[in-house]
Design the sequence.
């Protein structure tokens, strides 16, 4: 899975370059983000603008990265309505900080 | 009655093929975008469950997805010939819709697994699980239209 990287100070912004995050690609998704964390990135904005579908394994991968980042911060932005519905259904909106735009997410971590 | 059966080999790389097809087929059968998206998600979860659990990721087995339209309803049967689902999982599946509060149970919020069956139970209007001979079949029904 590919990610587009951008830096805003010490904040890493990752845009997920896929429209589906499901069990068939979840290993690459999880390992990809985890790799950025293990490289030392402790403030990450995950831009899900291109993701219109996420399944339970995708949510599990995000939780795994959230645990991995520990005292760092992983926030989400630009969530598609169907993905937002999934977060609401599973109460993941209680776990993750979700912002409407990339700028808002960066401001929150600055 | 209009119906179609899609069959894939038990390779997780086939998952998106059948899930995306289910979405489009449901729209063609009269489901709105939201309902079709929910069926896509539930077919995705059910097929992934077959591959990961019924077949324990073994390749070369078959998973079938039969989609048919009844009056104001779409039915999806996701079938495998692997290990049957444990009774505790069947109980979660057949609990019924509108149980989103279940996602808060037992600190599940921070668990990395265990949501798929509850998602199916929450989004589908009726769910049954049957084993007939060597075939396991998860039947999911979703109301559409008025």
Sequence:
């Amino acid at each position: 899975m590919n990610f587009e990287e951008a830096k805003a100070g010490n904040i890493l912004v990752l845009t997920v370059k896929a429209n589906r995050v499901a069990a068939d690609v979840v290993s690459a998704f999880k390992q990809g983000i985890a790799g950025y964390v293990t490289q030392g990135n402790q403030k990450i904005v995950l831009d899900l603008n291109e993701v219109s579908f996420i399944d339970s394994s995708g949510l599990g991968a995000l939780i795994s990265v959230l645990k991995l980042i520990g005292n760092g911060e992983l926030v989400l932005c630009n969530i598609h309505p169907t993905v937002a519905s999934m977060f609401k259904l599973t109460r993941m909106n209680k776990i993750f900080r979700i912002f409407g735009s990339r700028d808002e997410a960066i401001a929150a971590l600055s | 009655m209009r119906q179609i059966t899609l069959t894939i080999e038990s390779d997780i790389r086939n998952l998106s093929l059948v899930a995306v097809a289910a979405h489009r087929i449901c729209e063609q059968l009269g489901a709105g975008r939201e309902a079709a998206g929910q069926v896509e998600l539930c077919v995705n979860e059910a097929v992934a469950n077959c591959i990961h659990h019924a077949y324990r990721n073994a390749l070369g087995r078959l998973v079938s997805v039969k989609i048919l339209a009844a009056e104001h309803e779409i039915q999806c049967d996701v079938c495998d010939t692997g290990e049957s689902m444990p009774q505790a999982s069947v109980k979660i599946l057949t609990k019924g819709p509108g149980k989103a509060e279940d996602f808060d149970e037992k600190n599940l919020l921070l668990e990395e697994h265990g949501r798929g069956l509850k998602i199916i139970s929450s989004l589908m209007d009726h769910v049954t699980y049957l084993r007939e001979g060597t075939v396991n079949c998860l039947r999911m029904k979703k109301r559409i239209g008025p």
Remarks:
- Residues 96 and 121 of chain B are 5 Å apart (CA to CA).
- Residues 3-143 of chain B form a domain with the Heat Shock Protein 90 fold (CATH 3.30.565.10).
- The first helix of chain B runs from residue 15 to 28.
